[in-house]
Amino acid sequence: MTVIPESHLDLLARPLYAHLATLMPDGTPQVTPVWAIWDGEFLRFTTTTDRQKGRNASARPHVAISINDPDQPYRYLEVRGTVERVDPDPEGAFFDVLAKRYGLDYEAPVGDAGRRVVLVVRPTRFTSQ
Fold first, then answer.
1. What is the CA radius of gyration of the chain?
2. Helix ranges, 15-76 (H)
3. Is the peptide bond before 25 cis (omega within 30 degrees of 0)?
4. 65-68 contacts: CB < 8 A, separation 24 or more?
5. Each residue of 80-124: pLDDT tens digit?
6. Which stretches make up the Pyridoxamine 5'-phosphate oxidase N-terminal domain (predicted)?
7. d(CA 30, CA 63)
8. How many CA atoms lie within 13 A of 72 on its CB side?
9. CA distances to 4, 46, 63, 94 from 87, in Å
């Protein structure tokens, strides 16, 4: 059973930008706009092993995302969760999935494919408006 409310699943079904919050080594938050996909159990994001959000999520697995509805700006979904695993994506296959979802026209494979990983987040709580 998911913690995501049915009333806000549309925000995860649409290719909207999420803002991913991770924790820096000193405990302060770091927020990055990201592409996301929801499979009904996990939220997934792509990054590289050398980007701050990837390093933060690997070291400190508590994260949060927020997505607002561009058609109703005060309608939003915030999801808190835990990075259950960081899956290698050395061919950039998951990047390709997200690039298609978000309409990015580029020539595969992505240039940093060898450093690509997938952050797999299990939602634990949400707030919404």
1. 14
2. 52-59
3. no
4. 65/18, 65/19, 65/20, 65/21, 65/34, 65/36, 65/121, 66/18, 66/19, 66/21, 67/11, 67/12, 67/16, 67/17, 67/18, 67/19, 67/36, 68/11, 68/16
5. 999 999 999 999 999 999 999 999 988 777 788 789 999 999 999
6. 5-126
7. 10
8. 8
9. 23, 10, 16, 10
Which domains, ranges and CATH numbers included, belong to the chain? 6-128 (2.30.110.10)
The two tokens of residue 35 are 């592409």
The mean-pLDDT minimum among 35-44, 56-65, 84-93, 110-119 falls in 110-119
Per-residue CA distances from 43 to 52, 56, 85 (Å): 19, 17, 11
Q: Single out the residue of 88, 128, 93, 127 nearest to residue 110, CA to CA.
A: 93
Residue 67 contacts residue 17 (beta carbons within 8 Å): yes
